Amino acid sequence: MSIVALKNAVVTLIQKAKGSAGTSESGGSESTPLLRGSNSNNSRHDSSSSSSSDIIYGRNATLDLENSPMSVGKDNRNDDSGSNNEKAKLGLFQSVDPRVISDLIIGLSDGLTVPFALTAGLSSLGDAKLVITGGFAELISGAISMGLGGYLGAKSESDYYHAEVKKEKRKFYDNSNLINREIEDILLEINPNFSDETIVSFIKDLQRTPELMVDFIIRYGRGLDEPAENRELISAVTIGGGYLLGGLVPLVPYFFVSDVGTGLIYSIIVMVITLFCFGYIKTKLSMGSGSSTSKKVTEGIEMVAVGGVAAGAAWFFVKLLG
């Protein structure tokens, strides 16, 4: 999440907190800042004359016209129109979880490279049946291995997330002051000019909902998002399936020719086209409108070079040993 979006979320909660804090103070209660109690009186006196822009940008800050809400709104409208055009170009992919696309790219990248190198190496032995059999054996074992790796990786992320949530919940009930200091540190990272009263009001508002307080620390302090449901299974299927799909491409030509050398030539032609397209599309999906045509072409050429070097090395060493 960008710092602008984070600030907007914080400001929304601060405004709610200010309303609730004003109600409580009118009843005679008095708030004390958590870490800067010596300045609490000054903060309360200053708050009566400080404007909403002072709360957001600091009491002594001047309003920057380029960063004013009106100019930000205009920029957001321009950004929205650009993002809508980008989504229209991406079509189906804009509605897919970015993590799923990332896993698919990982599986396809390895699947297009490793089986291609293996089949190229086995083709130097001159036996088409050996190429197909060995290629399929590697393809199945590789897909299972990649899928298990994706499953374990996603499970580790999920375990770490829930462990952090459990730890923060324990802190909340054992030592709430420690949690308050963490939230204050997060707010001061966003804007060091936040007033004492603003921070205290924000924390008081969060304290009414412990789940929200923990979620705020996990999301903005730890930088963690809650894993999607069945994330482990989705990651395993996506990475393993991507590997299997990519690995089938270099094997296909050997089914239609009787001569291994001819099959290798056809496989190389197919893989050059496939690897280039994969590198081009991968860059377009990962970088979006920020990628130039030259960048996408360069990534496509790099994919061809990586696959070519791997296949050439495998062919050479198998030929040398055979």
From TrEMBL:
It is found in: Endomembrane system. It comes from the Eukaryota. It holds the Pfam family VIT1. InterPro entries: Ccc1_fam (IPR008217). It is a multi-pass membrane protein. Its main location: membrane. GO terms for biological process: intracellular manganese ion homeostasis. The keyword S-adenosyl-L-methionine does not apply. Keywords: Membrane, Transmembrane, Transmembrane helix. Residues 17-86 are annotated as: Disordered. One of its GO terms (cellular component) is endomembrane system. Residues 17-53 have a biased composition (Low complexity). One of its GO terms (molecular function) is manganese ion transmembrane transporter activity. The chain crosses the membrane at residues 233-257, 263-281, 301-318. The keyword Transmembrane applies. PANTHER family: FE(2+)/MN(2+) TRANSPORTER PCL1. Belongs to the CCC1 family. This is Ccc1p. It comes from Saccharomyces cerevisiae x Saccharomyces kudriavzevii (strain VIN7).
